[in-house]
Amino acid sequence: MDTQIKLKGDRVIEQIPSIKDKALRINLNENIYGTFAEIGAGQETVRHFFRSGGSSGTIAKAMSAYDKDFSDSIYGIEEDGRYVTESRLKKMLTMENQLIEERLSREKHPNKMFFSYANTVATIDFAKQFKGHGWVGIRYQIEPDEDYNEIILHIRFKETDARLQQETLGILGVNLIYGAYYKYNDPKRLLRYLYDHLDKDQLEIDTINFSGPRFADVDNRLMSLQLVKNGMTDAVMFDPEGKNILPAAILYKKNILALRGSFRPVTKVNMDMYEKSLKMFLEENKVEKENTLVVFEITLSNLRSDGEIDERDFMDRAELLCSLGQTVMISNFQEYYKVVEYFSNYTKARMGLAMGVNNLVDIFDEKYYRHLSGGILEAFGKLFFRDMKVFLYPMLDENGDIITSENLKVHPRMKELYKFFKSNGKVIDIDDYDPAILEIFSREVLKMINEGKPGWEPMLPSGIAEIIKEHRLFGYDPNKILNESN
């Protein structure tokens, strides 16, 4: 891979070293020393270090425990019997890290910064039905007497040739090791550098976690946002504890109820919609509570402020949803049918979408589907072809009338299409809503918080106002209230 040059207009803004140069720079650093353990796709990463020259100063050991029995003997047996898992990768990193500490004397190597690089990967199958995926990680030191840092990521291959996937994995591995040592002080840039000499249509990174002393201030939810923002993946998820989680693992074979919103901030209306739609969803045939996942989705278009993503605003919303014990998904999907398509990659079970009247009216707006050759009919085919239903929360209009699926207005050309889906039970009204909260709107609550106006606290779920005040979220400033009262 030759040196790449990034241009802005006619101006060179960055010169990217070749993969050979990256490997050579690592090799020529006399203090970087460690092991490579690669399972499933050959020893593609370490190959670059062997070929670039000077590898004896970097490579303490390189191995591939390709046989399952050998792998189990070295790293132990996985409870689920699988090998391409985060658990397996962590066992590999722990074992290799332990061995290098045991076998290499610190007295003999006082200046060495040890590392263990590992990957466990499944490339495309013979029938080309499963494109392949893998876990990749590095545990390493920046100073010889410092605790270890760790970067772990999950990848999905997009190429349809095993050899090309192997080459892609090798390049990614070099980028990760190089970035870990030379770009660790700027994790956002490190993330972008993972795609040096790679293209987005070769590889998807859908999960990443940083840990260790050098990443003590890194919020992994924010790093998830970068993955979507940079186009490295279409969606990321994290749990109530703020840990990034692999979408495939948590969505697999689940019944899924999704709620899309700005949640800026989350209000009693959002939670009423969630509770009532979940109750109805669980009453559906073949939907069992223990196999049902509720996902609060924020689409990237809802994170933008003046054309840019306001990261602080994102963290405010994430913190509140997590405090309510919710699983959050950040996506690049503007249209609802893309959300359903995404979920369909991981489950064939039942799905539900909970939404307000305005959202449903937007779904029947043709302007969102002009890029599709089949237009709105193609979109609706993708949206409703599976056993999916919309649970509709009512709206109070400017005249004080309650709007439901029975009296909402769509474009005249869409009337018959709407009637078709309504009559086929695809749109169901949430009837037992709380009428006392219909006048609560997130944008009004946000305005009150920003302007220091009193009275917004009762509009939010229990405990949320206290969190907003304590952490001064959404521009909350107690001095505004004090100044106004004075």
Mean of the pLDDT scores?
Answer: 89
Number of DSSP strands?
Answer: 20
Overall 3D shape: globular
Quote the CATH topology of the largest domain: Maf protein
Give a quick precis of the structure.
This protein has 486 residues and is of the alpha/beta class. The protein folds into 2 domains: 4-218, Maf protein (Alpha-Beta Complex); 249-437, Rossmann fold, CATH 3.40.50.
Helices and strands in order:
Blueprint: E1 4-8, E2 11-16, H1 19-28, E3 32-39, H2 44-52, E4 59-63, H3 68-75, H4 86-103, E5 113-122, E6 133-140, E7 149-157, H5 162-182, H6 187-193, E8 203-211, H7 220-229, E9 235-238, E10 244-245, H8 247-251, E11 255-260, H9 268-282, E12 292-299, E13 304-305, E14 308-309, H10 311-323, E15 327-331, H11 336-344, E16 351-356, H12 357-363, H13 375-384, E17 388-393, E18 395-396, E19 402-403, H14 415-423, E20 427-429, H15 442-451, H16 464-471, H17 478-485
Parallel strand pairs: 3-4, 3-5, 11-12, 11-16, 12-15, 16-17, 17-20
Antiparallel strand pairs: 1-2, 5-6, 6-7, 7-8, 9-10, 9-15, 13-14, 18-19
Helix pairs in contact: 1-2, 1-5, 2-5, 11-13
